[in-house]
């Protein structure tokens, strides 16, 4: 109960196309449109498949990782209690992105029962988010290329290619036998 507002705020922020004044990144719209185009191209009209593709490429691959591992983004220590709590939030997040109904009973794990009443609401946020994105104007290939070129130019000095090469070299030296066997 103490954390409910924070979990709601997190989910609402993630599943909003323009929450608190920040616009949806172009790359998300472009990626979701690409997935819809591929579904159309291959005559995949099943809503659940399209929904699952979108859930797997952004919320479940990116956001679950950030929720479960905040130390990847923030300079913090995550103890076992925090890890257990974040696992419950991450599981709730995953359940919210699912199109299947979860039948709960007396044998259901307690972490599933904690947010069971909230998941239908969260699922509606996910559906609204995908629907809002689909209604946004399409991003042309030219606009996406221009955006990426601009981002590359803006962050040109933030990437040290020699440092990256050194990291790759260190990795290869460490695992040279395994790499050589490939």
Automatic annotation (TrEMBL):
InterPro entries: Plexin, Plexin_cytoplasmic_RasGAP_dom, Rho_GTPase_activation_prot. Residues 1-179 form the Plexin cytoplasmic RasGAP domain. It holds the Pfam family Plexin_cytopl. Transmembrane segments: none annotated. Signal peptide: none annotated. PANTHER family: PLEXIN (PTHR22625), PLEXIN-A1 (PTHR22625:SF35). This is Plexin-A1. The gene is PLXNA1_7.
